Amino acid sequence: MKRNNAEQIGALIRNFLRQESLESPLNERRLISAWPEVLGTTIASYTREIYIKNQVLYVHLTSAALRQELMMGRELLVRNLNRHVGAQVITNIIFR
């Protein structure tokens, strides 16, 4: 028997994640995992803790000079991280 209402598996998985409210936590995890890839391994080596709370990315850095440098490019960094994930996950970054 031939079926005509076939759907792509990717679309079915996205719909399931959306219905079960799992899409946002998954995107947050993907964004945190993308931090070394987007900023590079050198900057990632100065990073101690990264977490997201209320669409704000909190990053603990060990270098005050690097913290100041990243604060100046914060808006571009938010856009690049969101673009890498493919969704609006964060709206701001707090460097500590």
Structure description:
The chain is an alpha+beta fold and 96 residues long. The protein has a single domain, classed as GMP Synthetase, Chain A, domain 3 (2-Layer Sandwich), CATH 3.30.300. The chain is 56% helix and 18% strand. It has five helices and three strands; from the N terminus they run αααββααβ. Strand 1 and strand 2 form a beta hairpin. The radius of gyration is 17 Å and the shape is elongated. The model has no long low-confidence stretch (mean pLDDT 89).
Furnish the topology, listing elements before pairings.
Blueprint: H1 9-19, H2 23-39, H3 41-45, E1 47-53, E2 56-61, H4 64-72, H5 74-85, E3 92-95
Parallel strand pairs: 2-3
Antiparallel strand pairs: 1-2
Helix pairs in contact: 2-5
What's the arrangement of strands in the largest beta sheet? Answer: 1-2-3
- Count of alpha/pi helices: 5
Q: Helices and strands, in N-to-C order?
A: HHHEEHHE
CATH topology, by name, is GMP Synthetase, Chain A, domain 3
Protein name: DUF721 domain-containing protein
InterPro entries: DciA-like (IPR007922)
